[in-house]
Specification:
Strand order of the largest sheet: 6-5-4-7-8-10-9
Distance between the termini: 80 Å
Radius of gyration: 29 Å
Number of helices: 17
Strand content: 15-25%
Number of strands: 19
Structural class: alpha/beta
């Protein structure tokens, strides 16, 4: 009888191995699912996934949905840190993108902002080793190297007294290319020809300022200087100026007017700023003329003033100044000083540049994305006192109603009410909200919605300077701010601001939602605005926001998502209207060391 062979299974060994793998995978998936559902790991991974999505820019719709999720605050969403190479990120002055643009009239070095959909929604981190900045006034002379570890400027300009590396600090001896012996003796020399002391000169503009030692040392004379330079090959000159606690701003004199109102500066200074004043039919000189107050002073130190191989440029500069009836006060070495005439009486004169007065319809204070004009701005378009020597001296200039405010509807009453309101509010901020105004913790301050500058005027006795921002779509009150002896710029808060990360110790804004609305509709996202505020705020810096209770609740939700600690307060007892006040502090967080 034969044996009967019964197979154990109809499946081959290969089929059994495949079944084992499928079963193992199934049970692994079930185990992971249960792990995610019933353990904190699931919450952590989900949060990480949402955070990673917040960095995504490939799908604008997804970005909008996630920004909305942050604003709603219904889920524990946080905005993640940007990468380590973004520590100095300036969205509108990004050389990687702007280098592709036209070189004509330095167009590529002006502001060029990406759309929000083209930018990651993330928080700019501090550099490795960042420390709380050296307090004012010590910061005028030294700052932490680790806060801006950029040695190029010290290497290139150290012999001219700009700055040098010394242990853990950058040291600032106070020199400049045209004043290597220091800003103080240079200012004293200018004072022989210009009324530096005594309060006649209050507002100054320093073009191509380097590390802003000129403006820094003018502060001792109660002269408030806006120092500006582009983001250039030296990379960080404005960043160094701001770290020192000196008013400064990133800008380029290229194809557009600078974002300042007409006839606002008592002094314009250029120390080897290399602006080609007579190029393009003297367009750049005409822009300086628009900004300079009648009777104000223009100082140009360095080329082309009596400079080798620049005889023609120097002759042309003198000819342009003569054609506008500027009085030459002195030419000493390579420094020339002019005084601007009063009124429009000079033109139309015959001149070799064919310069003519602008149309009477031209407003010299329109200056937000406004193309430069090849005409002379009329002082007659502005009613009231403009002339240096006619307007009050500092500090009485701060409190007297400026004529440019008086020209507005109910201007005097509104101005005086605004002044009283802010004196009351600042007292409440200091006494009841414990905001550290008047202490070394706060030096660089921004008011994002400045109106007449009442907030800045109310803290004039504190050791601070204030960048007063007048939103471009609001009433153009920036000229009033300058007439008070304060400084500021025009800006649209649906775009990033022209400054480096970690600029300000305190950011103040009254009516934050009005900055992003137009005729009742949002033009941009409150989340994007607050992420930008975070970019320009220093670690452990303070934010004060005033708005309706509904808006403040929304701001509070976003604040949590961007790692601020926030407390909501009631308004001052004397104030009218429905307002609450949010006071927030930016946490001092750092990237994990592995990210570096």
């Amino acid at each position: 009888m034969g044996h009967l062979n019964l197979p154990i299974s109809k499946r081959s060994p290969r089929q059994w191995r495949l079944l084992d793998l499928v079963s193992a995978a199934f049970f692994a998936i079930v185990f992971i699912f249960l792990l995610l559902i019933f353990t904190p790991l699931g919450d952590s991974m989900a949060a990480s996934g949402r955070q990673a999505l917040l960095l995504s820019t490939s799908d604008p719709g997804q970005r909008h949905r996630l920004a909305a999720l942050v604003e709603l605050g219904t889920q524990p969403v946080t905005v993640e840190a940007c990468s380590a190479d973004s520590v100095d990120h300036m969205p509108c002055e990004d050389p990687r993108r702007n280098s592709q643009l036209s070189r004509e009239m330095n167009f590529y070095r002006e502001r060029h902002c990406p759309l929000p959909d083209d930018t990651p929604l993330c928080l700019v981190p501090p550099p490795k080793g960042y420390g709380i900045p050296v307090p004012w006034p010590e910061s005028l002379h030294k700052v932490w190297h680790s806060n801006m570890p950029h040695d190029k400027l010290a290497e290139r300009k150290g012999h001219q007294g700009w700055m040098k590396l010394e242990g853990p600090y950058f040291i600032f001896p106070g020199g400049g290319t045209m004043f290597p012996e220091g800003a103080v003796p240079y200012i004293e020399k200018l004072g022989q020809y210009i009324p530096i002391s005594g309060g006649i000169i209050r507002t100054a503009l320093d073009m191509g300022c380097g590390v802003a030692s000129f403006g820094g040392y003018l502060l001792a004379e109660d002269i408030l200087t806006v120092s500006f330079a582009p983001r250039d090959s030296h990379k960080s000159q404005i960043q160094f100026a701001l770290e020192r606690g000196i008013p400064a701003f990133v800008a380029m004199l290229g194809t557009r007017r600078l974002p300042f109102p007409g006839f606002s500066f008592d002094l314009v200074h250029c120390s080897r700023c290399l602006v080609p004043f007579t190029a393009y039919n003297a367009t750049y000189f005409l822009e300086v003329d628009r900004l300079l107050r009648p009777g104000g002073y223009l100082v140009i130190s360095g080329p082309p003033v009596r400079w080798a191989n620049q005889d023609k440029e120097w002759d042309d500069l003198q000819a342009v100044a003569r054609s506008l009836c500027y009085e030459i006060i002195v030419v000493e070495g390579s420094t020339a000083i002019w005084k601007k005439p009063l009124g429009d009486s000079c033109l139309p004169n015959q001149n070799e540049f064919g310069l003519e007065l602008c149309d009477e319809s031209d407003d010299p204070s329109y200056a937000w994305y406004y193309k430069l004009k090849k005409c002379v701005s009329r002082t007659s378009t502005v009613k009231g006192e403009l002339d240096l020597g006619t307007i009050p001296k500092w500090p009485s200039r701060l409190t007297k109603v400026p004529s440019r405010a008086a020209q507005m509807k109910n201007g005097i009453d509104v101005y005086e009410a605004d002044t009283r309101r802010w004196l009351r509010r600042i007292a409440y901020y200091k006494n009841s909200l414990n905001i550290k105004l008047g202490t070394p913790a706060i030096r660089n301050v921004m008011d994002m919605n400045a109106f007449f500058g009442g907030f800045a005027a109310a803290i004039k006795s504190d050791p601070v300077w204030v960048m007063n921002v007048v939103p471009a779509r609001k009433p153009p009150t920036l000229a009033v701010i300058y007439d008070r002896g304060l400084i500021g710029v025009y800006h649209d808060w649906c775009e990033p601001f022209s400054t480096y990360p970690r600029t300000y110790d305190l950011i103040h804004v009254a009516g934050i939602e009005s900055l992003i609305k137009d005729q009742g509709k949002n033009r941009c996202s409150l989340v994007d605005l607050m992420v930008e505020m975070d970019r320009i705020l220093r670690p452990q810096g303070t934010v004060v926001v005033r708005d309706s209770p509904e808006v403040i609740d929304k701001v509070g939700r976003i604040a949590r998502a961007i790692k601020w600690t926030a407390i909501i307060h009631e308004k001052e007892p004397e104030s009218q209207g429905r307002e609450k006040i949010l006071v927030a502090t930016k946490k001092f967080w750092k990237l994990p060391s592995a990210s570096h």
